[in-house]
Structure formats: C-alpha cells, structure tokens
Amino acid sequence: MQSSNLQQLLQSFSSLELRELRKFLTSPFYNTRTDLVQLFDYLVENQSASKEQVWQHLQPDQPSMTKSCGC
What we know:
Layout: H1 5-12, H2 15-26, H3 34-45, H4 51-58, H5 65-69
Helix pairs in contact: 2-3
C-alpha cells in the first residue's frame, strides 16, 4: 500500500514534534474539532492504515468511504 502525504509527513516528525503538534491540535484557541485530534491519534498509532481503515475507525456507523463519496 502506498502511504498518503499526510502519513509520510507524520512519519518524518520526531516524538517531540508529534507531542507539540498534538498540544497544538488540542488547544481550543486553534482547534475546536475533536475529530481532528482523533484522526491525528489514529494516524500516529497506525502508520500503515489505509484510508478505509481510518474511515471505519472515525465513522463506524457510516457506510464505506468509497460508497458514500464515490472516491
């Protein structure tokens, strides 16, 4: 499977940079969307996850991403 640009970018960060990015994402001043934090956490923990796996983790009650958006 080919990594997405976002996955490649996250893999290039050090653990310190990942911690600081998470702090930024959880700051209510910069971000009010909790789903972005969930996405970040999932991608950091599952670096080889496919788009379908990410979708199923974030939207378990929704149909497949490819079926719902025509991707």
